[in-house]
Design brief:
Layout lengths: L7 E7 L5 H14 L4 E5 L29 H16 L9 E5 L7 H4 L4 E6 L2 H10 L10 H19 L5 E4 L4 H16 L2
Parallel strand pairs: 1-3, 1-4, 2-3, 4-5
Helix pairs in contact: 1-6
């Protein structure tokens, strides 16, 4: 009789517009093609209601790139629920994989402790800014949001991880998406095969 295996939980974190979602979506597809049961959770699904997110001290925008903007209790509940569901799903070839993507996923100890692998995107400020300008957001952002909040918070959260010696593989977001995908796929697949 086949026994269930706990999912491998892989975190994809890092800078805003670094390539996290692109990598996750491509990795889901590639792992499924390899016969792996894989699911994905995005931290963006757990933002608090806009009116519950505090205003930046400038009064011009809300501080969405900070821990106070995320409903971590709700996210942890979703992670535990997904893990329990995936443990019931067996595959003859591999352990299930849960990909969790978000800009602050490694900054929460309770969530960070669950990861078997951690990948963290970095980008130079000018490229992050350029990419941010090319994206369309549901709620348009004031121009001051990136230089006054998004980038400084990224640096603060990144520094927290470095000081805590979080074991993570850094990915250069300027590398091509296929190069990054192939690297991560080659590292993740062997760890989940039976």
């Amino acid at each position: 009789m086949e026994t269930s295996r706990s999912p491998q939980i892989v975190g994809i974190g890092g800078v805003s517009n670094g390539g996290k979602t692109t990598l996750c979506l491509s990795l889901v597809e590639k792992l499924r093609q390899a016969g792996v049961n894989v699911e994905m959770l995005q931290q963006d699904e757990f933002f608090k209601e806009v009116e519950d997110i505090p205003w930046h001290k400038s009064g011009v925008f809300r501080i969405c790139d900070d821990k106070v903007a995320i409903d971590m209790a709700k996210m942890m509940e979703a992670v535990r629920s997904r893990v329990a569901k995936m443990q019931k799903t067996n595959s003859a070839q591999s352990a299930p994989v849960l990909l969790i993507e978000g800009f602050l996923i490694f900054n929460y100890e309770c969530l960070n402790a669950m990861f078997s692998r951690r990948y963290f995107f970095t980008l130079p400020k000018d490229i992050a800014w350029e990419r941010r300008l090319s994206r369309e957001y549901r709620t348009p952002e004031p121009a001051a949001m990136f230089p006054k909040h998004v980038w400084p918070m990224y640096l603060i959260h990144y520094d927290e991880l470095k000081k805590a010696n979080v074991d993570m593989v850094e990915l250069n977001g300027t590398d091509g998406p296929n190069t990054i995908l192939e690297r991560v796929f080659r590292e993740v697949l062997p760890s989940v095969l039976r």
